Amino acid sequence: MECAFETDHVSFEDAEWWTAEDMIKRWILATKLVAKALAVMQRQLQAQSCGAFDRFKNDYFMAIAKNSIFVLLRFANGFTTTEAPDKLVYVLEMYEALSNATPGLLLLFTEQRVELVSRQVEVVLAKLARALRAMIGGLIARIRKADCPQTTGSAARGVGVHPLTRYAMTCVELLSPHRAALDLILANGAGESVTSLGSLVAVLVTSLERHLEEINPKLSNDDDDAAAAAAASRHLFLATNASYVARRAVDAGVEPLLGDGWAARRGSLIARYVASYVEACWAPVAACLETAGRKPVKVAAKFSSAFDEAYESQVHREIPDPALRDALRKAASEMVVPAYSAYLQNHPKLQKNVRHTAGELDRLLWELFEGEAAERNKLLL
Questions:
Q1: Cα–Cα distance, 76 to 190 (Å, whole number)
Q2: Could you tell me if 111 and 190 lie in one domain?
Q3: Is the pLDDT of residue 153 over 50?
Q4: Has this prediction a pTM greater than 0.85?
Q5: Cα separation of the two ends of the chain
Q6: Is residue 15 part of a domain?
Q7: In sequence order, what DSSP letters do the residues of 58-126 get, joined into one string?
Q8: Which residues form the Exocyst complex subunit Exo70 C-terminal domain (predicted)?
Q9: How far is CA 116 from the centre of its chain?
Q10: Residue 54 carries which DSSP code?
Q11: CB 295 within 8 A of CB 335
Q12: CA dist 23 to 12, 27, 38, 208, Å?
């Protein structure tokens, strides 16, 4: 059944100083308060003696209550054709406010009138739910096509968190508090096997990661011709973004919704990226020690040169996640330091001639991924 005010949308042309978001917030507040205000009015009206008009008091109140509620419904009905994902949270809050207020509002009406009001509320709620499912479909499409405003025209630079990753996980964080309403709305289907908040988050993360896998981060000019540096940067980029997704999922409280094995699979994925990064960046450095038939002095010199080059290319990269930063440092150290220490032990005459001791290498590797902080610390020394 269509709403009685189907074509009677609220016009906001006379309130240009308000944004749609401002008006929605005011509407939500009014929706929360109207039942209480009408209940007080009803008690006050019944407590007063109006003489010959007493028999009209109930009809008078019913008319005021119905008109008040229909004003709220008319406003909400004006947003039932909205499909822009940017308005998703606002319209979702409207749905929640109306749904939560409905029981209290219906208690105000007599049996003869409650059915009419209830029917109109159900129509608006159904239309809001339909609009929300369309917005969710649009959000999924945005992530898949990477055409959201925050990422349009942007490319991955360096190894930081991609704008699309931030956008997707910000959406997840904003939707998380509305799990109950979303589960109810999505139970009727939004396509893509999305039937709950958990399945929505899973689809968003999967779509995001498919896009990230296709990205090759832009490198500095010094790295353009270095295949190993490009591979290392790509794995570092993927590890950074995978770690960010995992951390934001925990912060948003949606990790339990993704299944028992999700956290473990996420950890394994990050570990693979870390291992691939170390293999691409630091394994070639350690391999310099495996040169057979060459003089130890030349081997040590080649190793030192390769280490310095790799170190300089990595020390200014910034990894904001402390856990990932430590995992990368530990993996790099385990790849390089034991091999170097063993080589020096096998060639004790080199101890006084090498540029770095094994301990110094370890210290340098644990300085990696501080970004600008590394440069500031260097200037202070």
A1: 21
A2: no
A3: no
A4: no
A5: 75
A6: no
A7: HHHHHHHHHHHHHHHHHHHHTTTT---GGGHHHHHHHHHHHHHHHHHHHTTS-HHHHHHHHHHHHHHHH
A8: 25-365
A9: 41
A10: G
A11: no
A12: 9, 6, 21, 33
